[in-house]
């Protein structure tokens, strides 16, 4: 929506939104005179607020009440009024550093499983933002092979173990390839051969994506391993396809209890629809927060802000959703987001989402 505002209108809209975010109470001209250095009279502020209401940026919940921002008002605020001249830039920068420091101190990438890492990041994000945090698990189709191992588990049966660069582990149990069981080799000989094959596979496949090895031209493998060729081709390809299937829990959700205590969520039916979306329809939410606008510099994290009715999902059309993708290099592999009432601290929420996305991008890269 194209709305041309004067400097005075911008400043009064900014002050109105800031006060409403802090208090959840309709804002009148008197309180703006008392708490903000606007340099104009109460009557002038009332006239400006009336003009902003006619433009659809503010509205009155009751005839005798003050005014509160509309979705359009918040959109102007996010797009035009969150600037260094109209916000405490130091506070926002400090919060972003606090997020980064908390993630670094409390999360230990080398020691944690992938799920534990995402769980911890989601909890920190919820605590610092005061919103519901949403972090998708990384898409495994972009995962890279870190290690492959073949192990003998009993006579004639072996296990193929695959570890991705995200420290996810997948395994497949199978029979020895045809002909091998007839050689009557003892267990030690088979273990040595499996280790040789494991070393060979790692030298050829480490660092390749799962999608790439699923479609690998296995005829290029060394002739001495022809006995294992077709057998390994089908086994590794099947394991790769299996790891690309979506997991049951696609989004790590934290911080629900505190957010639902906000006055905006006082109606039980509204709470039920949001909870149903979070618990039973995560696929819809996953698609939404992973859908990022194109940007000229794909290497930089981009924060997307969807306000109120801009959200296509009905249960959250009274909420704001702020999200960004985290990446491996320039490839998006997952999303970070916060969900809260439209009356949220946008500066802080944008800062913590961007900081969390940058941290996860660095960890996965």
From TrEMBL:
One GO process term, biological-process aspect: negative regulation of DNA-templated transcription
One Gene Ontology term of the molecular function aspect: DNA binding
Domain annotation Heat-inducible transcription repressor HrcA C-terminal: ranges: 115-350
Keywords, sorted A to Z: Repressor, Stress response, Transcription, Transcription regulation
Origin: domain of life: Bacteria
One Pfam family recorded for the sequence: HrcA
Endpoints of the signal sequence: none
Primary role: Negative regulator of class I heat shock genes (grpE-dnaK-dnaJ and groELS operons). Prevents heat-shock induction of these operons.
HAMAP family: HrcA
Family, similarity comment: Belongs to the HrcA family.
UniProt name for this protein: Heat-inducible transcription repressor HrcA
Annotated source species: Nostoc piscinale CENA21
């Amino acid at each position: 929506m194209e709305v041309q505002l004067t400097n005075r209108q911008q400043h009064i809209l900014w002050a109105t939104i800031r006060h409403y975010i802090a208090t959840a109470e309709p804002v009148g001209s008197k309180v703006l005179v008392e708490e903000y250095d606007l340099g104009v009279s109460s009557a002038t502020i009332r006239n400006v607020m009336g003009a902003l209401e006619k433009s659809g940026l503010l509205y009155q919940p009751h005839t005798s009440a003050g005014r509160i921002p509309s979705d359009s008002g918040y959109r102007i605020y996010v797009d035009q009024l969150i600037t260094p001249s109209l916000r405490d830039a130091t506070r926002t920068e400090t919060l972003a550093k606090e997020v980064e420091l908390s993630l670094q101190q409390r999360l230990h990438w080398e020691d944690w499983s992938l799920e534990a890492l995402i769980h911890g990041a989601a909890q920190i994000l919820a605590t610092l933002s005061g919103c519901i945090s949403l972090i998708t698990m990384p898409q495994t189709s972009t995962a890279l092979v870190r290690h492959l191992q073949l192990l003998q588990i009993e006579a004639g049966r072996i296990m193929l173990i695959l570890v991705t660069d995200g420290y996810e582990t997948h395994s497949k149990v199978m029979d020895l390839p045809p002909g091998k069981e007839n050689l009557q080799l003892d267990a030690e000989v088979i273990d040595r051969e499996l280790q040789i094959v494991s070393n060979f596979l790692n030298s050829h496949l480490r660092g390749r994506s799962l999608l790439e090895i699923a479609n690998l031209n296995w005829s290029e493998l060394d002739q001495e391993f022809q006995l294992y060729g077709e057998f390994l081709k089908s086994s590794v390809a099947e394991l790769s396809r299996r790891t690309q299937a979506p997991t049951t829990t696609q989004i790590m959700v934290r911080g629900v209890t505190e957010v639902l205590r906000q006055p905006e969520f006082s109606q039980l039916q509204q709470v039920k629809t949001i909870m149903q979306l979070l618990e039973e329809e995560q696929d819809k939410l996953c698609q939404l927060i992973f859908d990022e606008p194109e940007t000229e510099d794909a290497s930089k994290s981009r924060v997307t802000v969807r306000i109120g009715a801009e959200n296509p999902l009905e249960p959250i059309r009274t909420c704001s959703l702020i999200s960004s993708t985290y990446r491996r290099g320039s490839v998006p592999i997952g999303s970070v987001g916060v969900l809260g009432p439209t009356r949220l601290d946008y500066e802080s929420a944008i800062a913590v989402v961007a900081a969390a996305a940058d941290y996860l991008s660095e960890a996965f890269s």
